[in-house]
């Protein structure tokens, strides 16, 4: 195996494409409802916002999967919507995951509620910094990376416009504004972009070592609309963060949707300039790597690809088999630079399902951590 060139956490080194001693592993939504410890904590802190906005509680939730499974990354327990109140928009999340926001659908409403609202994360979102500082202290010297949590402009805009998760009715309000008032939508996206950059910087200053960027609903748009309403704003966020914080790796993920399944937007995501692309489970890891290499993005690290349904349903032998298959695929490097130099972070193709047994999650992480090239590919 290749020798490390820095003392940074394993996940950070893999994100940068540095040689690593083994493949790092963590799971999207690893902190949450699939864990008994989390469900027990919910009885004491019954609302999502109470759990995510109370620093000691949010830190405890963030650490639960690290303590239980030994993952290589701890992500801030938060939500895409967390910065909205600091932008003038309050929100509510039900225990079933439903989102409620008073939407913005007219210029008058935008100017009254958002446009002239000051944005000061340190004043309005102090719990984020406090949580990250607790986590930094807990993880110091462990070799485990601390991930920040950021929603990207288009996805955040859909919540602002719809007042809820847009998948319920096909993002009807967003579609309507694209057609009826594109100038207003651009202003909303411009403002969100600037605020998101500030918010990401705030997380980095508070201890985040790597940032997970979620543009979950971007795959709802057709290619021509994606190029107009998603890509430019992704690029602005990434470009500005790279300019200000070049040492902090950035991971971009989009959920598999109608127009993004099968890695349809893989090259577009790479053009943003991120260090890592999170891929879902609707494209093979081999194919994703091949396409990025052929498009000139061989330097980009891949993350993910394990089907969360496999992790949920098992059985255990199948989980081990599929995990080893992915690991072997990730380490088959055609240019023969050494097995551990392959740019890959093990993760799921989507967030872990709430019904996933903890024993399955533990087995998955254990299999990745124990993997060596001598393991037989199924």
Can you walk me through this structure?
With about 375 residues, the protein is α/β, with parallel strands linked by helices. It has helices at about 10-15, 35-45, 50-55, 55-70, 105-115, 120-125, 125-140, 155-160, 170-180, 180-205, 225-230, 230-245, 265-270, 285-295, 310-315, 315-330, 360-370; strands at about 75, 90-95, 100, 145-150, 210-215, 250-255, 275-280, 300-305, 345. Helix 4 packs parallel to helix 7 (about 125-140), helix 8 packs across helix 10 (about 180-205) and helix 16 packs parallel to helix 17 (about 360-370). The protein starts with 9 loop residues before the first helix and ends in an 8-residue tail after the last helix.
Topology (elements, then pairings):
Blueprint: H1 10-16, H2 36-44, H3 48-53, H4 55-69, E1 73-75, E2 92-93, E3 99-100, H5 107-115, H6 121-124, H7 126-139, E4 145-151, H8 153-162, H9 172-180, H10 182-205, E5 210-214, H11 223-229, H12 231-244, E6 250-253, H13 266-270, E7 276-279, H14 285-294, E8 301-304, H15 308-313, H16 316-331, E9 344-345, H17 358-370
Parallel strand pairs: 1-4, 4-5, 5-6, 6-7, 7-8, 8-9
Antiparallel strand pairs: 2-3
């Amino acid at each position: 195996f290749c020798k490390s060139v820095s003392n940074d956490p394993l996940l950070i080194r893999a994100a940068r494409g540095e040689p690593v001693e083994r493949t790092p592993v963590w799971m999207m939504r690893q902190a949450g409802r699939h864990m008994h410890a989390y469900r027990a904590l919910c009885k004491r802190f019954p609302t999502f916002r109470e759990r995510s906005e109370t620093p000691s509680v949010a830190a405890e939730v963030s650490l639960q999967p690290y303590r239980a499974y030994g993952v290589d990354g701890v992500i801030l327990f938060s939500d895409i919507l967390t910065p909205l109140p600091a932008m003038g928009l309050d929100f509510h999340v039900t225990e079933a995951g439903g989102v409620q926001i008073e939407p913005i659908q007219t210029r008058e409403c935008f100017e009254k509620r958002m446009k002239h609202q000051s944005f000061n994360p340190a004043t309005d979102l102090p719990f984020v910094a406090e949580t990250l500082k607790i986590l930094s202290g807990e993880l110091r010297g462990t070799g485990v990376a601390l991930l920040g949590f950021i929603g990207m402009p288009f996805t955040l805009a859909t919540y602002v416009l719809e007042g809820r998760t847009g998948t319920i009715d096909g993002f009807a309000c967003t579609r309507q504004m694209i057609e009826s008032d594109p100038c207003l939508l651009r202003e909303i996206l411009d403002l969100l972009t600037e605020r998101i950059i500030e918010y990401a910087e705030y997380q980095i200053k508070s201890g985040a070592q790597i940032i997970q960027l979620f543009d979950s609903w971007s795959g709802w748009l057709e290619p021509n609309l994606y190029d107009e309403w998603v890509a430019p704003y992704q690029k602005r966020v990434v470009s500005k963060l790279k300019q200000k914080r070049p040492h902090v790796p950035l991971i971009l993920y989009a959920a598999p949707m109608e127009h993004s399944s099968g890695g349809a937007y893989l090259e577009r995501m790479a053009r943003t300039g991120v260090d890592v692309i999170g891929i879902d489970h609707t494209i093979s890891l081999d194919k994703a790597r091949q396409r990025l290499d052929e498009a000139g993005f061989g330097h980009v690290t891949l993350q993910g690809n394990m089907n969360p349904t496999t992790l949920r349903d098992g059985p255990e032998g199948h989980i081990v088999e599929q995990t080893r298959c992915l690991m072997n695929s990730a380490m088959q490097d055609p240019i023969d630079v050494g097995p551990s130099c392959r740019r890959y972070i093990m993760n799921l193709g989507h967030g872990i399902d709430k019904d996933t047994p903890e024993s399955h999650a533990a087995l998955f992480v254990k299999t990745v951590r124990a993997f060596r090239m001598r393991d037989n590919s199924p």
